[in-house]
Amino acid sequence: MRKNRPVSERTSADNVSPFATFTRDQWAALADSTPLPLTQEDITRVRGLGDPIDLREVDRIYRPLSRLLDLYSSAVGGLHDATSAFLGERSRRTPYVIGVAGSVAVGKSTTARILRELMARWPSSPRVELLTTDGFLYPNKVLRERDLLTRKGFPESYDRRALRQFIADVKSGVPEVTAPVYSHITYDIVPDESVTVRQPDILIVEGLNVLQPASPRDLDETALAVSDYFDVSIYVDAEPTNVRQWYIDRFLSLRKTAFTMPDSYFLEYADLSDAEATEKAGHIWDSINAPNLARNIAPTRSRATIILAKGADHKVESVHMRKL
What we know:
Strand content: 15-25%
Shape: globular
CATH class: Alpha Beta
Number of strands: 9
CATH superfamily: P-loop containing nucleotide triphosphate hydrolases
Helix content: 25-40%
Number of domains: 1
Distance between the termini: 19 Å
Strand order of the largest sheet: 1-9-8-7-2-6-3
Oligomer: single chain
């Protein structure tokens, strides 16, 4: 976490905080008694483009994190059983929901996928599913009509009501809940395609704005935000200057992969020179992603249960965990 903490994270005494802070080495030591069920091949398969995460990083950071989340989930399960016994009910436990937030290119998708792989392989073998909130972006046609295409990723570019209803249904124990599918190739919602969530033990919800509080425009009789349905939340943090460079590096790599596909929305960028691509990526970051990060995403950091603070090399330097 940055030295200049948000006001919401400060207290009257400089040495007091609602977060317990662990250095990289202190956090890694917590994993000594737990197994690492993944291989380097597993990590290569699930990591995002431009994210250099390796087996050592997973071992030191994500193994203890997944174990902590497993303990949290088990504790909630015990509370459910105790509550059901007290009330004389036999209701099914609803999915344990984990929110993962952070900037574009900060590595939150990799974090979510690594956690899914790890948690699904713990001895309890829970059913773990992952949902990205990209599917709740409005279709490009709607964004154009509302003059929001250049603000894709901002809170107003999402169907927040539909996303909130999806999470509410999951936490209400609805047997099957469907969500739209988004294509990063066509840069749009895929027509007539959906993903179905069927009462998993754990659901990981990953997205830019999942920790946003309820907007005055979205208030209804419940006045709830998506994050109000999370059991625990994680914010992946890094200095904006570092994330900007990671975004540019990823853009350069995409010229040789996704941008070259015939149906790619960004096909016109595939033949850009390094200098042209760097300039274009920098412009997109400075005009869209940086303002969104500063105005909408970073201010939600202090609402997270756990903050993973990354350094310039993508490695997590410290972990900040909200005190219980």
